[in-house]
Amino acid sequence: MKVHNFNAGPSVLPNEVLYKASKALIDFEGSGMSILEIGHRTSPFIAVMEEARSLVKELMQLEDDFEILYLQGGATMQFLQVPMNLLENGDTAAYVDTGVWSNKAIKEAKSFGFVDVIASSKESNYNHIPKQFNIPPQAKYLHITTNNTIYGTQWQMTPVTDVPLVADMSSDILSRSMDFNKFSLIYAGVQKNMGAAGATMVAVRKSMLGKITRKIPTIMDYKLHIENGSMLNTPPVFAVYISMLTLRWLKEQGGITAIEKINDKKAAMLYDEIDHNPLFRGTVAKEDRSKMNVCFIMDKPEMEEEFLKFCAKEDIVGIKGHRSVGGFRASLYNALPLESVEVMVEAMKYFSLKKA
Ligand code: PMP
Question: Where in the cell is it found (predicted)?
Fold first, then answer.
């Protein structure tokens, strides 16, 4: 029996994926070997990598100019790999500061060029997405973090600009329909909506690359990863395999538009309870609420520990808020069943009645 897993990442995976992965751990497609025991340059594994890359492109409906890579180092490595590949010394990149993760991206970019932080919601502890900003036309790119995992805010609109857009989509990738072709580079750690920890997905337009004079170390060069079919060195085979299974699962569900309907329903149910239950209160501006990470607190913080214990008894796990916000954070990633949100809402109602 599984619990109701609201972890922020690594997080819940579809049962089918876990089942298939567990079989492949013992015997991969009847080969008599575990997926962990086959060479990455064998045709069965190359097929896994190619299917994963092409499913990303298909599910996101990306134009031909995009190349999909599975890399290592997490989204955290992308904070530096992006500017290292796109920014010439002396160039400017524009960043919007919407929290801890965008700050880390900003810090790394400063090693490669000028960083213009064009807007920030820091003064209100990142409880909203900045709406007013001017994008300098000379900027090489504009970087945004589409979903802010810690605070529970999410960009509802893609900024309109001629400047190439770069996005960290680690915590809302493949969860909602967007015109992904408006972006020039998208990256995401795969451990939330795309699989298990250990791989990072990068979707990059080839036309963005090869334009700078800096010497890029081999392992950091997107162009070389592309030329080598995302196998410049040994890829994280098991993480790529789980990601491929997760993408197959998403396709079977009907793709992004189908999962988005369920995600909308899950988020609406939980926010509705937060807004109507007198014990709880949301922490961010309503118009910027994330459908992936729902953050909320109690007016009586002394009750929070008791509520957490009550939830644990109901098999609800992973809802303790990040230390910088406090309270609770329920992550509603693609693989979290609607039923888990129903159980969570029931628990909130019951707890509130007991306290009335
Ligand atoms: N960006 C966002 C939005 C995240 O939520 C996270 C991790 N939670 C990261 C970046 C860092 O990802 P990683 O641990 O894969 O480096």
Answer: Cytoplasm
Burial readout 21-31 (b: 16 or more C-beta within 10 A, e: otherwise): beebeeebeee
Interface confidence: ipTM more than 0.95:
yes
Number of H helices, E strands in the chain: 9, 14
Both tokens assigned to 2: 């599984």
User: Which of 149, 166, 191, 202 maximizes ligand 1 atoms within 8 Å of its Cβ, making it the mutation to test the pocket?
Assistant: 149
Beta strands 280-282 and 328-331 are: unpaired
Give the separation between CA 317 and CA 188, rounded to whole angstroms. Answer: 24
- Positive or negative: CA dihedral 273, 274, 275, 278: positive
* 3-class DSSP state of 338: helix
Convert the pLDDT of each residue in 52-70 to its tens digit: 999 999 999 999 999 999 9
Active site residue 101: yes
Q: 296, 355, 286: which is closest to 331 by C-alpha?
A: 296
Is the pTM higher than 0.95? The answer reads yes
In this structure, what token pair is assigned to residue 227? 């030329």
CB 175 within 8 A of CB 333: yes
What is the residue type of 245?
Answer: L
What domains can you pick out in the chain, each with its CATH number?
Answer: 15-253 (3.40.640.10), 255-355 (3.90.1150.10)
